[in-house]
Specification:
Acyl-CoA dehydrogenase family protein; Acyl-CoA_Oxase/DH_mid-dom; Acyl-CoA_DH_CS; globular; Butyryl-Coa Dehydrogenase, subunit A, domain 1; alpha+beta; Butyryl-CoA Dehydrogenase, subunit A, domain 2
Length: 564
């Protein structure tokens, strides 16, 4: 029962997390002792393994289709979604005011990892619902909150995030969608949006499209963007939101990615005109953290598959004796250890970031709340990108362990790889996360986020006595001191990699200090192994970061025509 085992290990990581005791204290009504956590996370494991995983196998092969202007989902999606909603899994982190369970983000992330382990395509629907609720409850007027928040939390209605347009994806200031005010307080929204996950479906009767659009008198650039809630239907009549197409994708076949046309659709202003992008970041940040859960889920699935296969597949050994299982071979052991260590520190990274989100939201002391917020600001771009890349790397290594079998559709490893590849693209590409970390977290805001992490990690290094963590932090400090705005755009990515290795080294050092139970010993061994890998890899990333503009010195001399 790999999901049950994963749930148990997740709970062990949560309870061992130094910040978790404070989370428990700030959520006293939740009663989050070990028994309660095992019940909640174990329940998520049950529905993930018993309902969602079987759906994903069929959904990947069947996919979604566009039929007479409406999206038809893969067979079995309605039944799986009904079971998910009936189990209350959309309500975990929702505010009690809206019918939510009011549990901490770290509990939500633990359950979300297991859902994404079973099917990241399925997990693409509840994430924008949860994150849109945060925007609506913070910036929506009372009527909008009362109408939408309870139904989004309950899973009765759905939501999307609509930002990108043709030739204006990450270049948000160039968005062209327009919103014109009407005399009745509504707006008419006109424009084309792309890359909209679950842009249309019939799992719920209504969808809230959270749309960035420009008002007639708006200033140019991002300062002129406002946020609108455009419902899929208005007063019982389908709104003029048209599905142009469903994208044909490498993976996530159970999740329809739509191009939508807004043809004078009725919408409602959310919050303050001209503050749409800043307000929508409430949703974007939540979705980036969910990418971490997706990466952790796929990484764990790939590691588990590879270890189980290697323990059964027989090949090699003495010619006059029966073949041995391939996990007896040194090279395979090396790959398996790397897989498991990467998956476990990815999980620890997501849980730590989630705990910081809880502390930022609940701490009553302003200093403690500020520190948690600064640590979260450091962890978010690292969590999003490291987890995304971990999923791809772990899936690729799992295919290598399975050999030819891993390349076939008989085994799920190739699906893990296809599903994982987009994680480093949506909700902000790897390059965007790198620029965010270098320009905003280190060079911007007086480096508060960077300095908060460094102080926290240095304190843990001293208490844990981890020499390797000290070396990782030394390399990070040296590289950060060399950053400047002119060269940061060139070396931001290797710096992000270096910062990720230092940060996961911090996670690993904490794990390496555990002992006393078989699970703790298991986690400690993986933590020690990751420190070995991180130390070696960080040296290379530090060297690349130190190259500065030298990393692109050859660019002007390259002749593109000679590439063929």
């Amino acid at each position: 029962m790999p999901y049950t085992a994963a749930a148990s290990t997740i709970v062990a990581q949560m309870l061992a997390l130094p910040e978790f005791a404070r989370v428990q204290a700030l959520f006293p009504e939740a009663g989050l002792d070990e028994a309660m956590l095992l019940e909640i996370v174990g329940g998520a494991a049950d529905i993930a393994e018993g309902v969602i995983a079987p759906f994903d196998t069929h959904a990947d092969r069947t996919g979604c289709r566009l039929d007479q202007g409406r999206v038809t989902l893969a067979p079995g999606h309605h039944a799986a979604w009904a079971a998910f909603v009936e189990g209350g899994w959309t309500t975990i982190e929702g505010a009690p005011e809206w019918g939510g369970a009011g549990l901490p983000m770290i509990v939500h992330s633990a359950c979300e990892e297991l859902v994404n382990r079973a099917s990241p395509a399925f997990g693409m629907l509840p994430t924008p619902m949860r994150c849109a609720t945060k925007v609506i409850e913070r910036y929506g007027d009372p009527a909008l909150r009362a109408e939408w928040a309870p139904r989004l939390v309950a899973g009765e209605w759905a939501a999307t995030i609509c930002i990108s347009e043709a030739e204006a994806g990450s270049d948000v200031p160039r968005l062209r969608t327009m919103a014109v005010p009407q005399g009745d307080g509504t707006w008419r929204v006109t424009g084309e949006k792309i890359w909209i996950s679950f842009g249309d479906h019939d799992l719920t009767p209504r969808i809230a499209h959270m749309v960035l659009a420009r008002t007639p008198d708006a200033a140019p650039g991002s300062a002129g963007l406002s946020l609108f809630l455009v419902p899929s239907d208005h007063e019982g009549v389908r709104n003029t939101v048209v599905v142009r197409r469903i994208e044909e994708k490498l993976g996530l076949h159970g999740s329809p990615t739509c191009a939508l046309g807004f043809e004078g659709a009725v919408g409602y202003l959310v919050g303050t005109p001209g503050r749409g992008l800043a307000q929508l970041f409430t949703m974007i940040i939540g979705m980036r953290l969910s990418v971490g859960s997706q990466g952790a889920g796929l990484s764990g699935a790939a590691a588990s598959l590879a270890w189980r296969y290697a323990a059964e597949r027989r090949q090699g050994g003495k010619a006059d004796a029966p073949p041995v299982t391939i996990d007896r071979h040194g090279d395979v052991q090396r790959v398996l250890l790397g897989l498991a260590a990467r998956a476990e520190v990815t999980r620890g990274l997501v849980l730590t970031a989630s705990a910081m989100a809880d502390l930022q939201a609940r701490e009553m002391d302003e200093t403690a709340r500020t520190e948690a917020g600064q640590l979260l600001a450091w962890l978010l771009p690292i969590t999003k990108n490291f987890a995304a890349e971990a999923a791809s790397l772990c899936a690729s290594d799992a295919i290598q362990v399975l050999g030819g079998a891993g390349y076939t559709r008989e085994w799920p490893a190739e699906r893990y790889l296809r599903d994982a590849r987009v994680l480093a693209i949506y909700e902000g590409t790897s390059g965007m996360q790198a620029l965010d970390l270098a320009l905003r977290r280190v060079l911007g805001d007086e480096g508060r986020a960077y300095r908060a992490f460094l102080a926290k990690a240095r304190a843990d290094q001293a208490s844990l006595g981890s020499a390797t963590l000290g070396i990782l932090l030394d390399r990070l400090e040296l590289a950060a001191a060399s950053l400047d705005k002119a060269g940061a755009t060139i070396v931001a990515y290797p710096f992000l990699q270096l910062a990720s290795l230092a940060t996961t080294g911090w996670i690993a050092a904490r794990l390496a200090a555990l002992s006393g139970t078989p699970t703790h010993n298991h986690l400690a061994a993986l933590g020690r192994h990751w420190l070995v890998l991180a130390d070696a890899q960080a040296q290379a990333e530090a060297t690349l970061t130190a190259q500065g503009t030298g990393l692109v010195a050859a660019f002007p001399t390259i002749q593109p025509d000679l590439l063929g």
